[in-house]
Amino acid sequence: MNVTDIPIYLLDQIGSIHKISLPQQGHTSLVIKIKTREHQFIIKKTEHELYNEWLLEEYNALQSISSAGIPVPKVHAFHKQGKSRWLLMDYIEGISLRHFLAGKPDPKDRERVIAEYGLSLKQIHETKCPANLHRQSDISWLDSMFTQAGHNLKNYGVAGTEELLVRLRDTPLQPVENTFIHGDYHTNNVLIKHNKVVGIIDWSRAAFGDPRFDIALAIRPKQGVFDQTGDKDIFLEAYDRLTITEEEYLFFQEGLYQFF
């Protein structure tokens, strides 16, 4: 990625660029780190119809919660150019929680940071949902997710199957009160510095929805991450709003999430 590849509209807002680098990449966008004399930015670029949609939704969500007290990057611009979409926002210094935990930190630091992770999700769920994300509809959040899951299954390469979607639709789920949710809350999307949560990123699925969806994604085990006895308990004790059954965990993490 060179300076000449970046749209002039964004360059005008960035100013004189000293360095461009490519940090760890996600699966849906090209991530570019920009350093100027006085500031650091992140640019996310997408070129796929679905990912373009998600990037616009992330921009709208970040604008909506900029003053909510949640540690999120400040957004500066969203730009369309042909089939590409560009999002310019501040860079937050920190490492992902997954990277932190995989680095085998001191056990006390590990516990402290997992508790911070739970407290941060509690803060999100106790934040009033922005009006533009609280869509008034006769269709429930879950039914809207089923509809979107069916659309994604038909049009994009997702891990879920038709059989799985039918089974999920036929599975009775104990209702809980909806809250503001992140929609993709997991250890790669939470940034840590000095044993504190300093950033929460990737807000494209933010909505007024079932908080168990966030919990299920938050506690899914990976190698070195949420694979130790007590990790889940530390998280849920800090979160301290509701718990999640094994059946609910499987419904959301091994089920619904496979279509997104």
From TrEMBL:
Pfam families: APH (PF01636). Residues 22-220 form the Aminoglycoside phosphotransferase domain. It comes from the Bacteria. This is Aminoglycoside phosphotransferase domain-containing protein. It comes from Paenibacillus campinasensis.
